Amino acid sequence: MKDGLLVNARPGNDLVTERKFNDFKLRAEFRYPKGSNSGLYLRGRYEVQIEDNFGQEINSHRIGGVYGFLTPRVNAAKPAGEWQTMEITLVGRVVTVVLNGEPIIERQAIPGITGGALDSDEGAPGPLLIQGDHGPVEFRELTLTPAE
Question: Which of 23, 69, 121, 143 could form a cystine bridge with 27, CB 3.0-4.6 A?
Answer without folding.
Answer: 143
